């Protein structure tokens, strides 16, 4: 498990072991009575599970929604538990293996699915055999239990997955859940409910259960379209932000660099992954309002007239008006609106002071200023890192929030350490000239830096 934190390794192995232990215990619990109909049903479920496993919808922030949820839930009621778990585990393991995932990912994902199917079925057993609960015409009692089983499946599945991401990112499971699953919870649980309906009809008469294929396919297709529209929406608005940067060669990719700094500052301030992401998006769009400013004003190299300054200072409000129309970006609206406020209350548009200014706006202000200071402009050369840091320090308490500047200084020193580490690594891989003695580390870094700079 190269590159994994020790806590993540332990978690992977623990979940892996639990899933396999549960499967083994279920097979040992009581021997199955193999009949032809049971074998055919198991093979059929295996085929359906395999086919629906191919239908994957990408979620906004790295997660996936797989249509096999429907057949996995149905199998809890249709098949004896060891077989239901085996069908699910086998499908997952082979899929993961064919995707050339490393052994520990295959183990974790397989065991996670074994637990997601096995544990809700065990909970149902407290009330009776799952097939009897749903299939004996006692829907008034069986259905609520079956729906509860869907929620349990969903909870186990998402908690196990999100916990590994939370351990790796050192954030909370709830934050990761909000990132990955909050927008799709209804669909994910809805797919499980379709699985219950499928099982219910199957237990009355298997052939009519085919009817559930239609609504299931429609639900998956509709969600897939929603995701595509969300992606296009995001790409569209980011393309506008990039176009604004590109109007001026001096600000090319400015908002991307600001967003990278903003995310690092938010991480240092331990704002949680959800807020890091919101502020990163806000930073990408912070100057979107410049779309309403003419090139004459935007590219003017001499001092702005009072009227031009008034027009220029409208850009945060224009940006906020545009962002307000996009639901996905509204959380970062205040950070964009107030990114030119100053800590002493002399900024714009509202002259907010101190902590009246939203924290996101205070963070963008620092990152934006540093990025602007360290970039060339038509009317001045770029400041060095040391000069820009001195400017930030001198603006602490007047222009900038001292806490945010302190966090940003940490980001810069981390960045410096990472760069030094990369250069040392690069140096170690370069062949040493024959006949020269080992140079000092400072000389070596400089030599490699200048060599890398020429490439
Ligand atoms: Fe701005």
Largest sheet: 2 strands, antiparallel
Instruction: Give the neighbour order of strands across the main sheet.
Output: 1-2
Shape: elongated
CATH class of the largest domain: Mainly Alpha
Please identify the oligomeric state.
single chain
Report the end-to-end length measured between terminal Cα atoms. Answer: 35 Å
Concise structural overview:
This protein has helices spanning 6-29, 36-53, 69-78, 81-98, 103-125, 130-135, 139-169, 173-180, 185-204, 213-246, 254-268, 273-284, 295-298, 306-312, 315-323, 333-337, 359-373, 385-394, 402-429, 441-454, and strands spanning 56-58, 64-66. With 455 residues, it is mainly alpha-helical.
Walk me through the structure.
The chain has about 450 residues and is mostly helical. It folds into two domains: about 210 residues, Orthogonal Bundle (Arp2/3 complex 21 kDa subunit ARPC3); about 170 residues, Hypothetical protein af1432. The chain is built from 20 helices and two strands. Strands 1-2 form a two-stranded antiparallel sheet. Strand 1 and strand 2 form a beta hairpin. Helix 7 packs across helix 8. The chain is elongated and about 90 Å long. Fe (ii) ion (FE2) binds next to loops.
Keywords:
1% strand; 2 domains; disordered C terminus; mainly alpha; binds fe (ii) ion; 455 residues; elongated; 20 helices; two-stranded antiparallel ribbon
Give the helix/strand layout.
Blueprint: H1 6-29, H2 36-53, E1 56-58, E2 64-66, H3 69-78, H4 81-98, H5 103-125, H6 130-135, H7 139-169, H8 173-180, H9 185-204, H10 213-246, H11 254-268, H12 273-284, H13 295-298, H14 306-312, H15 315-323, H16 333-337, H17 359-373, H18 385-394, H19 402-429, H20 441-454
Antiparallel strand pairs: 1-2
The structure holds fe (ii) ion.
Residues 286-287, 315, 339-340 line the site of fe (ii) ion.
């Amino acid at each position: 498990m190269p590159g994994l934190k020790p806590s993540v390794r332990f978690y992977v192995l623990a979940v892996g072991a639990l899933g396999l232990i549960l499967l083994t215990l279920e097979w040992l619990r009581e021997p199955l009575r193999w009949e032809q109909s049971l074998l055919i049903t198991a093979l059929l479920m295996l085929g359906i599970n395999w086919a629906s496993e191919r239908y994957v919808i990408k979620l906004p922030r790295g997660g996936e929604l797989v249509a096999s949820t429907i057949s996995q839930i149905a199998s809890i009621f249709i098949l004896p538990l060891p077989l239901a778990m085996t069908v699910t585990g086998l499908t997952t393991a082979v899929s993961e293996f064919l995707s050339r995932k490393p052994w520990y990912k295959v183990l974790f994902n397989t065991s996670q699915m074994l637990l997601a199917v096995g544990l809700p079925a065990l909970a149902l057993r407290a009330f009776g055999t799952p097939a009897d609960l749903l299939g004996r015409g006692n829907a008034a009692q069986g259905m609520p239990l079956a729906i509860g089983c869907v929620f349990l499946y969903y909870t186990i599945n998402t908690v196990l997955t999100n916990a590994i991401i939370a351990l790796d990112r050192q954030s909370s499971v709830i934050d990761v859940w909000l990132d990955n699953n909050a927008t799709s919870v209804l669909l994910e649980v809805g797919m499980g409910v379709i699985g219950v309906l499928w099982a219910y009809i199957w237990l009355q008469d298997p052939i009519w259960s085919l009817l559930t294929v239609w609504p299931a396919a429609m639900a998956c297709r509709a969600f897939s379209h929603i995701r595509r529209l969300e992606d296009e929406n995001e790409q569209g608005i980011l393309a506008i932000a990039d176009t604004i940067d590109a109007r001026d060669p001096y600000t090319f990719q400015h908002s991307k660099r600001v967003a990278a700094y903003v995310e690092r500052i938010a991480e240092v301030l331990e704002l949680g992954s959800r807020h890091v992401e919101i502020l990163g998006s806000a930073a990408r769009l912070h100057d979107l309002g410049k779309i309403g400013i003419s090139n004459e004003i935007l590219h003017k190299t001499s001092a702005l007239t009072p009227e031009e300054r008034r027009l220029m200072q409208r850009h945060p409000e224009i940006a906020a008006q545009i962002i307000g129309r996009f639901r996905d970006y509204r959380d970062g609206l205040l950070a964009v609106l107030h990114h030119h406020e100053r800590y002493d209350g002399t900024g714009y548009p509202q002259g907010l002071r101190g902590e009246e200014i939203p924290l996101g706006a205070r963070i963008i202000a620092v990152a934006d200023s540093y990025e602007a200071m360290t970039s060339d402009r038509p009317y001045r050369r770029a400041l060095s890192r040391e000069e820009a840091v001195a400017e930030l320090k001198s603006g602490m308490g007047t222009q900038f929030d001292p806490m945010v500047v302190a966090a940003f200084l940490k980001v810069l020193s981390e960045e410096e350490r990472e760069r030094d580490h990369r250069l040392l690594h690069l140096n170690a891989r370069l062949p040493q000239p024959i006949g020269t003695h080992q140079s000092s580390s400072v000389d070596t870094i400089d030599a490699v830096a200048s060599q890398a700079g020429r490439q």
